[in-house]
Amino acid sequence: MILGTADDPKLPDGALDGVLMVIMYHEIANPLVMLEHVKTALRRGGRLVIVDMPPRKTATRPRADQVKNHVIAADLVVGEVTAAGFEIVSRDDHFVDKPDDESTRWIIVFRKP
C-alpha cells in the first residue's frame, strides 16, 4: 500500500502504464503539482484516464466555484492536463449519461509523450 498526500501520490518513478482518476480530479487543490508527480510515475506513452462530473450551473465560472459543488468542466481539465505536458488520446463528454436521474460523467484519456 502506498499512502500519498494531497499534492503527491508518492508513486514510483517511471513504473506505471496507467493512472485512473474516477470522480476525484475536482478534489485536487493543486493540479499542476499532482499532475507532475503522475507524469513522473508514468512510463513514456503511459495513460492518464480521468472520469468526472460536469457542472450544470457553474460551467462558466472559475475552477474554485465548480469544485465547491464537486464537479469540474472537461474543458478546464483539458487545459490543466495539457499544460502539464500530456496529450489527449480521446474524449467523451457523455461517457455515462442517465437522463432519468440527470447524472452525466465525462471521460478523457491522456498520454504521456
Helical run tally? 3
Work out the helicity level. 10-25%
Structure summary, number of beta strands: 4
Query: CA-to-CA gap between the ends?
Result: 28 Å
Q: Biggest sheet, in brief?
A: 4 strands, mixed
Q: What proportion strand? A: 25-35%
Radius of gyration, Cα only, in angstroms?
14 Å
In short:
The protein has about 110 residues and is of the alpha+beta class. The chain has 3 helices and 4 strands.
List the helices and strands and how they pair.
Blueprint: E1 16-22, H1 31-41, E2 42-52, H2 63-68, H3 74-83, E3 87-98, E4 103-111
Parallel strand pairs: 1-2
Antiparallel strand pairs: 2-4, 3-4
Explain this structure.
There is one protein chain. This protein has three helices and four strands, in the order E-H-E-H-H-E-E. The chain is globular and about 40 Å long. The protein has a four-stranded mixed sheet with strand order 1-2-4-3. The chain has helices at 31-41, 63-68, 74-83; strands at residues 16-22, 42-52, 87-98, 103-111. It has one domain (16-104). With 113 residues, it is α+β, with helices and mostly antiparallel strands. The model has no long low-confidence stretch (mean pLDDT 94).
Highlighted features:
alpha+beta, four-stranded mixed β-sheet, 113 residues, 24% helix
